[in-house]
Write a structure and sequence with these properties.
Layout lengths: L8 H100 L3
Length: about 110
């Protein structure tokens, strides 16, 4: 490249045009690169978003089932507590006497 002061007007103009073309090519390459990055992002979203939604739905169903089981266990726990309260009222002695009577009756029949 010549010194700018030694260049003619035509040479300066040609140098500016060549530089503009180089800058335009670089700008177009940059836009193409950004476009490819954007396209890759869209494709990845198209692939993974349905999988993420499906996983979220499965998680929600699992949480609903766990909540349902928890409520059932709570009901069972309440029943067990009431049974324990009934047994602590002396029902064990009644149950024990009933088992003894059943053993004696079954013993007569050879069981």
């Amino acid at each position: 490249m010549k010194n700018i002061e030694e260049m003619s007007d035509h040479e300066l103009l040609m140098e500016l045009v060549a530089e503009k073309r180089r800058q335009d090519k670089l700008r177009y390459l940059k836009y193409a690169f950004y476009g490819l990055i954007g396209l890759a992002f869209v494709v990845l979203c198209y692939i993974y978003v349905p999988k993420i939604v499906e996983m979220y739905k499965a998680y929600k169903q699992m949480v609903d089932k766990v909540n349902e089981l928890t409520s059932q266990l709570q009901g069972t726990s309440d029943k067990i507590n009431s049974l324990i309260d009934d047994v602590s009222d002396g029902t064990i002695e009644k149950l024990k006497s009933l088992v003894d009577v059943l053993n004696s009756v079954l013993g007569r029949f050879g069981f």
